[in-house]
Structures are given as C-alpha cells and as structure tokens.
Amino acid sequence: MIALVTDDSGWLTWTQAAELAGCPVSTVEHYARIGRIERRQVRGRGRGSLERRSVEAFASWWREEVARRKRRRADHESRRIRPPEPQGWIQATEAAEQLGFAHSDHVVWLARQGRLEARKVSTRWWVRQAEVAAYAGERQQWVSWMKAAMMVGCSHETIRRAVAAGRIEKRDVHRTRASLSLSSVLEFRETFSR
C-alpha cells in the first residue's frame, strides 16, 4: 500500500488564520474573498485552507489597520465639539426645544441680545441650562403687548389704555422682553369680555 504524503505546513485552517491575525473568522473570510489572503480550493463543500505566508502578511497588515482605525477614532473624538465647560451647558437646538421655539436661531438671537448667556464653540452655540430654565419661567409669568392683545381679543391700543389705567401690570424692561403680567392680562380679559 502506497501512502501519499502531503506537506500542509505552509497552509492554515481558517480558525488558525483568525487566531494568528487576532481577528474574527468572518474578517479572514472577507479578505480571502477579495484576494488579500491566498487560499487553495478543495473539492466538495469545504472552504479549503489558507497559505501561511499570505496569512502572516495579512496579520501584519491587520494589526497596522486596527492601530490606524484607533488613531482615527481618537482623532475624531478629540475634534468632537464639546460644551465650553463640562456641566451646565446645552446646545441651542435643545434650548429651542425646551422653550418651544421652532428653530434654534431664536435662541441665538436671544443670546446676541444678551438675554441668555451663550458661547459659540466651533460651529455650535451652547447656552447655560440654568438661564434657559429661568427664561422659560419668565415666559410663563410675562407676556408681550401683542400676545396680550391676542389673548384678550382686542387691539393693541386697548391694551395700552388698560396699562395706562393700571388695569394691567407692566414692568420696565428692555422693549424686546415681555413686560405685561400674565395674571393681570387674564384678569383684564375676564372684565373686558363682559
């Protein structure tokens, strides 16, 4: 009986190749499919085996590739836009959502008017969270002259007369801020509709 001797020292299984490269078998399969790793076909359903030299070359390349990807991720993370300080800041888009504005442009406008403390970092605006909460509370207590007229269902002139007569409470603030007391506007609305 004659025995056939085959030298398989130059070939590896897929699992051995994955262990040598330090990657999953699926990664070895992918790179074998695209030709980075040499393989020999076998008859039947098996996957065959992989040439040791090409697997060693791939393992070296793979380690460099993994290191390059880690460097890229670290570089990307270092360039990520962060708030000016670790705590107490939210993005203008989030502030707009909390205040019920359709767009963050209004929050930026408020910041530029000096009504909200904000900072621009790279391309993003960050607003102090405490100031957004205070502004939201203020919006619940004070209304603009135009909003008061809409709430009551009257003209701007009627609101002006009610303020002059002392029927609606007014505070002295910059003209861009709501200056009429919401509670006094609601009381005036009750008496106005009668």
Explain how this protein is built:
This protein is mainly alpha-helical. It has three domains: 11-79; 89-134; 144-192. 53% of the residues lie in helices and 12% in strands. It contains nine helices and eight strands. The strands form three sheets. Strands 1-3-2 form a three-stranded antiparallel sheet. It has a three-stranded antiparallel sheet with strand order 4-6-5. β2 (39-40) and β3 form a beta hairpin. It is rod-shaped, with a radius of gyration of 35 Å.
Write the layout of secondary structure elements.
Elements: E1 11-12, H1 14-21, H2 25-33, E2 39-40, E3 49-51, H3 52-79, E4 89-91, H4 92-99, H5 105-112, E5 118-121, E6 124-128, H6 129-141, E7 142-143, H7 145-152, H8 156-164, E8 180-181, H9 182-192
Antiparallel strand pairs: 1-3, 2-3, 4-6, 5-6, 7-8
Helix pairs in contact: 1-2, 4-5, 7-8
Give the gist of this structure.
The protein has 9 helices and 8 strands. The protein is mostly helical. It has 3 domains: 11-79; 89-134; 144-192.
| Annotation, overall tally of beta strands | 8
Query: How many DSSP H or I helices?
Result: 9
How are the strands ordered across the major sheet?
1-3-2
Anisotropy-based shape: rod-shaped
Number of domains: 3
Q: How large, in whole angstroms, is the Cα Rg? A: 35 Å
Beta-strand proportion: 5-15%
Largest sheet: 3 strands, antiparallel
Structural class: mainly alpha
What level of helicity do the residues show?
40-55%
Which residues sit in consecutive blocks of at least 5 with pLDDT less than 50?
A: 1-5
User: Please, what is the average pLDDT?
Assistant: 84
Separation of termini? 118 Å
